[in-house]
Task: inverse folding
């Protein structure tokens, strides 16, 4: 039996929920320290117990804006799309990032549960750098991480590991080992402010170096620039 074809045209989303747009220094990954425009989208699919941006976890905490207005607000060569979780708004998120990639160098700060792979198939993918934040045990969100995304990371991308305990460092070793097996990306390790001292990461890196099981040329310690510059209680500005 024949059925009537669905001839409806699905329109691309034109609006997106935004918490903040502002210029400052980038804070993580390869682009840390560079001047950038932050586009902080509202809403997140996770609830990490040490979340640094509780003011951007839900859509109602933001303002619904035309995507065209967001694009117009970005005046720097570099743009950092973050959240909340910047991919949590589905096709609206994807459209915004694709549009930004046509004219800007984009650093996408996303967690390890949201699928960014469609963006890597875009012709402007060389303008995109993915900083993927893999949640470790202290976050209480590790169960939502998708190991398949480790394979998608390119040499220009970053696996970010935020460690808040010795247990996190134990787990980080396992994750790094798997990432290095399937990807050429670099790994940046930082700490939860007040929970783990950066020297603890250095001590662990020394052990990894002596054991020769990890490629240390692809592992970096990154200090928590947000807390150093603005303090733990103040928002990034």
Result:
């Amino acid at each position: 039996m024949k059925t009537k074809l669905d001839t409806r045209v699905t329109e691309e989303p034109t609006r997106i929920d935004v918490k903040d747009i502002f210029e400052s220094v980038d804070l993580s990954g390869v682009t840390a320290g560079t001047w950038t425009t932050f586009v902080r989208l509202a809403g997140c699919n996770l609830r990490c117990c040490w979340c640094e941006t509780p003011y951007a976890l839900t859509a109602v905490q933001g303002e619904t804006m035309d995507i065209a207005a967001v694009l117009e607000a970005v005046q720097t060569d570099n743009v950092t799309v973050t959240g909340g979780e910047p991919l949590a708004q589905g096709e609206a998120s994807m459209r915004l990032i694709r549009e930004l990639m046509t004219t800007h160098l984009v650093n996408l700060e996303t967690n390890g549960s949201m699928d960014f792979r469609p963006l890597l198939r875009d012709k402007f993918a060389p303008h995109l750098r993915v900083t993927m934040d893999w949640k470790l045990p202290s976050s209480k969100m590790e169960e939502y991480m998708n190991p398949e995304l480790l394979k998608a990371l390119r040499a220009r991308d970053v696996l970010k590991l935020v460690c808040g305990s010795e247990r996190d460092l134990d787990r980080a070793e396992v994750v790094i080992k798997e990432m290095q097996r399937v990807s050429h990306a670099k790994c940046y390790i930082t700490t939860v402010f007040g929970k783990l001292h950066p020297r603890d990461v250095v001590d662990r890196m020394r052990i990894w170096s002596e054991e020769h099981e990890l490629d240390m040329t692809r592992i970096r310690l990154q200090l928590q620039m947000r807390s150093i510059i603005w303090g733990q209680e103040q928002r990034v500005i």
Remarks:
- The chain has a mean pLDDT of 92.
- The radius of gyration is 19 Å.
